[in-house]
């Protein structure tokens, strides 16, 4: 009796296997080889390719060492918070590893001199300054489909003005036109972005929702589609000024990982953005070094490996500039203790982000 049941079960399993093989064969004949496969059969697909953000702390906070390729990224925040600076740092890092990058400047406000100071090779950077939102997204789609672009930045979503709005009168109402445009563009883009392994960074601005009594009144422009399609969303804010005597020489910046499909989200990292220099790597080494226990802080003095490196943060930064070998040693030690640093960045009760 039991043998009969086993034979029937084996026959049923074989029939299921044959039916599955037949279905897979039919799909491959209809849509081409590789249109369906087992997830673990392609090891390369499981490896996440990343591009560094130019900030050691943010790379650690993202959990995978940078921003993922073949995904959509959104960077948003108030005015003059460092959104374009962060995107230009990503471009510089991609170019450093031999990547080809493009910048769709819908705001018509990119400063080539500033980009060069951040390490961007402007001679190799492709730039487009489109007239309308449809043109900008069509250019982005063509570049992504080419498979030759590694990083594409769209600056910004708020400046993607639909053609209907451009051709209309100044007082005309165009409710939801931009949101529909973004929704359609992202539906078209998302498949080709994944296939081409191109990272597309959308820079976005913040608006206030009217009549919100409780909760966060902030929202981003362009509707909800980008919030869903983005694998990583970064909220960047200026939290203070860096002064040398009375002169302001930079901004203290806080970045919160609001959404992350690749690793746990809600990590928060702070770093300095110096005018004309970008993200201060030496300032990060000191702050992260203290978090990781690599740099000791006693009063206002900082020391590493039993040797004092400066009284006050700015003096310690200057010491690391003059002694690059010490900076390299601290960076290696921080990377070795990345887990400890990441735990210190975790925010248990997230607040201040926009609604998903």
Question: Can you give a write-up of this model?
Answer:
With 356 residues, this protein is α/β, with parallel strands linked by helices. The chain contains 13 helices and 16 strands. The strands form 4 sheets. It has a 9-stranded mixed sheet with strand order 5-4-6-7-3-10-11-12-13, with helices on both faces. The radius of gyration is 24 Å and the shape is globular. The relative contact order is 0.13. Residues 348-356 have low confidence and may be disordered.
Which helices and strands occur, and which strands form pairs?
Elements: H1 2-31, H2 43-46, E1 50-51, H3 56-61, E2 67-68, E3 72-76, H4 83-96, E4 101-105, H5 112-117, E5 126-128, H6 133-146, E6 151-155, H7 163-167, H8 177-196, E7 199-204, E8 206-208, E9 218-220, H9 225-229, E10 232-244, E11 247-260, E12 268-274, E13 278-279, H10 281-292, E14 295-298, E15 301-304, E16 307-311, H11 313-322, H12 324-336, H13 338-345
End-to-end span in angstroms? 58 Å
Strand content: 15-25%
Total count of strands: 16
Radius of gyration: 24 Å
Largest sheet: 9 strands, mixed
Topology as a string of helices (H) and strands (E): HHEHEEHEHEHEHHEEEHEEEEHEEEHHH
- Write down the oligomeric state: single chain
Strand order within the widest beta sheet: 5-4-6-7-3-10-11-12-13
Subcellular location: Cytoplasm
Binding site for ATP: 77-84
Domain RecA family profile: 47-206, 211-284
GO molecular function, one term: ATP binding
């Amino acid at each position: 009796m039991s043998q009969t049941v086993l034979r029937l079960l084996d026959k049923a399993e074989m029939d299921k296997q044959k039916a599955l093989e037949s279905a897979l064969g039919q799909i491959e004949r209809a849509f081409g080889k590789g249109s369906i496969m087992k997830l673990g059969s392609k090891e390369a697909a499981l490896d996440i390719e990343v591009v560094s953000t130019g900030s050691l702390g943010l790379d650690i906070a993202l959990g995978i060492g940078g921003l993922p390729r073949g995904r959509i990224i959104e960077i948003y925040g108030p005015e003059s918070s460092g959104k374009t600076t962060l995107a230009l740092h990503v471009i510089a890092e991609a170019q450093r590893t031999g990547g080809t990058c493009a910048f769709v400047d819908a705001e018509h406000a990119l400063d080539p001199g500033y980009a060069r100071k951040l390490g961007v090779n402007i001679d190799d950077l492709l730039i487009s300054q489109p007239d309308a939102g449809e043109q900008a997204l069509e250019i982005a789609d063509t570049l992504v489909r080419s498979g030759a672009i590694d990083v594409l930045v769209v600056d910004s979503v708020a400046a993607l003005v639909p053609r209907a709005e451009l051709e209309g009168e100044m007082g005309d109402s165009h409710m939801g036109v931009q949101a529909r445009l973004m929704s359609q563009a992202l539906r078209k883009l998302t498949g080709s972005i994944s296939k081409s392994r191109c990272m597309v960074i959308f820079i976005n601005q913040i608006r206030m929702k009217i009549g919100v009594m409780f909760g966060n009144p902030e929202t981003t422009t362009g509707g909800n589609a980008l919030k869903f399609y983005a694998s990583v969303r970064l909220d960047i804010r200026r939290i203070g000024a860096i002064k040398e005597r009375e002169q302001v020489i930079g901004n203290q910046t806080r970045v919160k990982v609001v959404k992350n499909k690749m690793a746990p989200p809600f990590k928060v990292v702070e770093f300095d953005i110096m005018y004309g220099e970008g993200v201060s790597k030496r300032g990060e080494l000191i702050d992260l070094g203290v978090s990781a226990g690599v740099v000791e802080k006693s009063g206002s003095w900082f020391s590493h490996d039993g040797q004092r490196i400066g009284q006050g943060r700015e003096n310690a930064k200057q010491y690391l500039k003059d002694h690059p070998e010490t900076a390299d040693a601290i960076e290696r030690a921080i990377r070795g203790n990345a887990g400890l640093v990441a735990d210190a960045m975790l925010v248990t009760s997230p607040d201040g982000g926009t609604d998903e």
